[in-house]
């Protein structure tokens, strides 16, 4: 009960925020906040080749969803014969519930997801045992996330390497305040929970013992930090940057500092839709790829920021979005300026290969981390189970078909489902060919 009361206090105005995000609460779920973008006509010749001409996708207004918005606004999906309807979701829980409904029940066909949500929806672990098979088709973005800390803990000088910058801080905080340090994220047992857990554990801080972790919707964070109801928050931009810009907190670390070119959120669709409409799925991926390539060009960042800033999409000031898209941050308690596009959100190109391609080695990592924290007992208890689930849900064949039909150069079409070894900021190595060794190397886990 005590934790429930704390959570209710943190949520505060969540009901009013949800109304803003979802539009008319009396409408069916797929119609809430439905955004159609510009009046761009679907190409009739391309449409005639597809099994269906439309799909409804859920999105959350953070930078991971930018390729979906751009795909609609710039007509990339329409060019390939598909009318993509975007339905703004008030929370990840809402998105989960709406994909279970499907469009036949007034919900959504799929959309933007933190991992391993699609895998766990497929297995029924997030849906009260109801299995709704999903297909992970592409990665939407890399990097572009951060962990913001409140001004009330500026004296902690929190940074990417807590062992160096803040030794003993969390223990001292508990002794001084008579309670644990409160850290939050938008949905449990998924991306943003993983980032803050990895960061804390790498700094010698046990996330289940030394701090209190809570789930809070992203729009509540600014007010929550102003009210002193949280000390840190892990989420996608523009929220960490907004917290810093509003001078209610500072950016302790970006996720790019934790793991350069890390996997972020993904496009995943109900398997029944994909299996029934494989040509439309390829058309969807063609539009997505073109949107990602457009977004990655420096000369398009300002236009993208203007587009995303509108009330129907993100409802966030354009300068905040433009700075985030360009990798312009102020980092740390001393607000050190950083201007490095390579550390900002990446949508297409990187020195680790194409962002969009759904590397199985990367989608597997989220399941291995789920095993580390024993998040899904009975579903993910062994590496073998994790690999089997990953192989069922992550499919690259449709992405490869889309890339080839677009005529992409060979260098942009991966020839392996593994990106190889990954190295974190603390020197930890994740070798997807031996995930058990990675798991064994982690000192802090359940």
Report on this model:
The longest helix is centred in the middle third of the chain and has 18 residues, at 278-295. 54% of the residues are buried. A hairpin with a 4-residue loop joins strand 12 and strand 13. This protein starts with a helix and ends in a 5-residue tail after the last helix. The protein is globular, with a radius of gyration of 21 Å. The chain is of the alpha/beta class. Helix content is 40%, strand content 15%. The chain has helices spanning 2-11, 14-22, 44-48, 66-73, 76-79, 92-101, 117-123, 162-165, 169-177, 191-202, 221-227, 239-245, 255-258, 271-276, 278-295, 301-309, 318-325, 360-372, 383-393, 397-405, 435-441, and strands at 34-35, 54-59, 83-88, 110-113, 134-139, 145-150, 181-185, 211-215, 232-236, 249-254, 266-270, 328-331, 336-339, 422-423, 429-430.
Q: What would the principal axes of the Cα set say about the shape?
A: globular
- The name of the CATH superfamily of one domain reads Periplasmic binding protein-like II
- Into which percentage range does the β-strand content fall? 15-25%
Low-confidence segments, ≥5 residues, pLDDT <50?
1-33
CATH architecture of one domain: 3-Layer(aba) Sandwich
Please state the CA-atom Rg, rounded to the nearest Å.
Answer: 21 Å
Report the major sheet.
6 strands, mixed
Q: CATH top level of one domain? A: Alpha Beta
SS summary, helix count = 21
Give the overall average pLDDT.
Answer: 91
Q: The CATH topology of one domain is what?
A: D-Maltodextrin-Binding Protein, domain 2
């Amino acid at each position: 009960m005590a934790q429930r009361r704390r959570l209710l206090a943190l949520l505060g105005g969540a009901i009013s925020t949800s109304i803003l995000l979802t539009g008319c609460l009396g409408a069916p779920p797929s119609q809430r906040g439905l955004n159609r973008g510009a009046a761009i006509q679907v190409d009739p010749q391309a449409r005639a080749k597809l099994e269906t001409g439309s799909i409804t996708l859920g999105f959350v207004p953070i930078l991971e969803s930018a390729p979906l918005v751009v795909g609609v606004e710039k007509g990339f999906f329409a060019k390939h014969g598909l009318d993509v309807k975007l339905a703004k979701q008030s929370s990840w829980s809402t998105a989960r519930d709406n994909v279970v409904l499907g469009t036949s029940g007034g919900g959504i066909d799929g959309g933007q997801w933190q991992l391993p949500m699609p895998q766990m929806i497929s297995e029924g672990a997030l849906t009260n045992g109801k299995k709704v098979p999903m297909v992970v088709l592409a990665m939407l973005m890399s990097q572009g996330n951060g962990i913001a800390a409140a001004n009330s803990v500026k004296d902690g000088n929190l940074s990417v390497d807590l062992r160096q910058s803040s030794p003993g801080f969390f223990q001292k905080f508990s002794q001084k305040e008579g309670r644990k340090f409160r850290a939050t994220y938008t949905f449990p047992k998924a991306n943003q929970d993983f980032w803050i857990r990895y960061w804390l554990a790498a700094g010698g801080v046990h996330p289940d013992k030394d701090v209190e972790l809570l789930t809070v919707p992203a729009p509540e964070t600014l007010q929550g930090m102003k009210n002193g109801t949280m000390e840190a928050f892990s989420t996608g931009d523009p929220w960490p940057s907004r917290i810093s810009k509003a001078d209610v907190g500072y950016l302790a670390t970006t996720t790019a500092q934790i793991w350069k070119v890390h996997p972020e959120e993904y496009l995943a669709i109900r398997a029944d839709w994909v299996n029934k409409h494989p040509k439309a799925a390829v058309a969807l991926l063609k539009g997505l790829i073109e949107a990602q390539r457009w977004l990655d060009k420096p000369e398009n960042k300002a236009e993208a920021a203007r587009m995303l800033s509108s009330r129907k999409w993100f409802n966030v000031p354009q300068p905040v979005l433009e700075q985030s898209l360009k990798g312009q941050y102020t980092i740390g308690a001393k607000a050190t300026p950083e201007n490095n596009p390579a550390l900002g959100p990446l949508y297409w190109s990187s020195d680790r290969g194409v962002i969009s391609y759904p590397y199985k080695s990367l989608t597997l990592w989220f399941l291995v981390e789920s095993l580390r924290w024993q998040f899904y007992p009975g579903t993910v208890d062994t590496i073998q189970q994790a690999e089997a689930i990953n192989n069922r849900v992550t499919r690259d064949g449709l992405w490869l078909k889309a890339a080839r039909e677009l005529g992409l150069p060979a260098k942009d079409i991966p020839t392996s489902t593994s990106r190889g070894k990954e190295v974190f900021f603390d020197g930890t190595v994740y070798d997807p060919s031996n995930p058990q060794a990675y798991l064994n190397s982690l000192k802090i886990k359940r």
